[in-house]
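pls ignore typos typing on phone
cytidine-5'-triphosphate + seq
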Amino acid sequence: MTSSSLNRVDVTEFATRAHTAITLCTLGQAHLSSYHMTQRVLLIVGGGIAAYKSLLLIRELARRGIACQVILTKGGTEFVTALSAGALSGEPVFTDLWELDEQAEMGHIELSRSADMLVVAPATANLLSRAAHGVADDLATTTLLATDKRVLYAPAMNVRMWGAAATQRNIKTLADDGALFIGPDIGDMACGEYGPGRMAEPDAIADAVQGALMGDMSLDGLRSDKPLTGRKAVVTAGPTREAIDPVRYISNHSSGRQGYAIAQALADQGAQVTLVSGPTALPAPHGVARIDIESAREMLAAVEGALPADIFVSVAAVADWRPAVQYDKKGPKPKNGIPPLEMTENPDILASICKAKPRPKLCIGFAAQTHDVIKLARAKRKRKGCDWIVANDVSGDVMGGDNNAVTVVTQDGEESWPRADKRAIARKLAQKISHDFRKAIS
Ligand code: CTP
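k done
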């Protein structure tokens, strides 16, 4: 391809300077120069407020060693500039089909040919509609029509536009044609409304891109149909509180973040989710039924009450012990010495649910370890009778922190996932669960 064959915003000089600055300022060791990168994405940025997140996506892809060539739609240029996109990608940015020279015919074909996959982010309702109908009236849609590469759409629009029958029809058409989808996420939107419509976060899109480039089967979970529709899931999260008397209790540092993120990710995949939660500071995930409990015994009763279910994910940091006697009144300080605190064992919720009749088809436990993580997790999986154990090393800042690095231990072996945001781990687990259910019914 000759770059002159397309209307190009030549940002090379600016990009080189900005690129150096960005590399030094924000990317640390990451290689931003596409010269070193072996995989390439063609990123189409549509005209939506979420376009600013696409700039972060370019940076996130670069951090992961994936080069990015950008096409801005006309609407896209209203939200981000070609200069910013070019500075971050280190490559020329293309915007317009209509000012092409005689080689133009090949230009857009070559653009998609030189990429390993296409990503449309934000994929606006208009862009999705034009792509679904094979419209080719600008560079972005012409490239989409001409490509034989995998296309990942990250939709972003107003809640009602997303829910509109026309949009859902277009999504189905594109999905039937083999497109992948990520999001939209549920949450507050720039237009002041709440619901599904927010573009997926850049790290989640980058995870999906990486998965697609690796031919990850779990990407089946990214198709627009919800693979866990009709499935019931019960998730436990947070700490338990074991009362000593009406004002004192024994508990732990669990924030509930990982369990809440898993509940949300399963709901996003279509599951009907009940979250049984110990005391946390977190809002209930959207579309999830939350039952608040305090003690381990209350948690067990709530979980049993939510059965039967297809999936049980036991993320709660359940106190193994509780005070043998719980006083009705706050006792006075003893005159001499320290008061005795006799303890008794709590029920093991995971082990009980793994023996329940009917048993959830997939029971997943977590193993919080500070040493010999995998060895102890393997033993724990057998001891508790669960299908998978998600093992994590809690010797660092995992409890209460934002990130987690886990190894999933199943009867078939182990799968280690690199340290990532707890929401990313949750999405990956939900995708693995979806994949497992797809396998079971195929
Ligand atoms: N768990 C449970 N009920 C308990 C204790 C733990 O359901 N009374 C669940 C946790 O939710 C987690 C798994 O069991 O999914 C493992 O929890 P962990 O605290 O790592 O293990 P323990 O059972 O406490 O074993 P140990 O303390 O010996 O490591």
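Confidence is low (pLDDT under 50) at residues 1-35. The pocket of cytidine-5'-triphosphate is lined by residues 236, 296, 314, 316, 318, 320, 346, 348-350, 365-368, 380 (CB under 6 Å). more later
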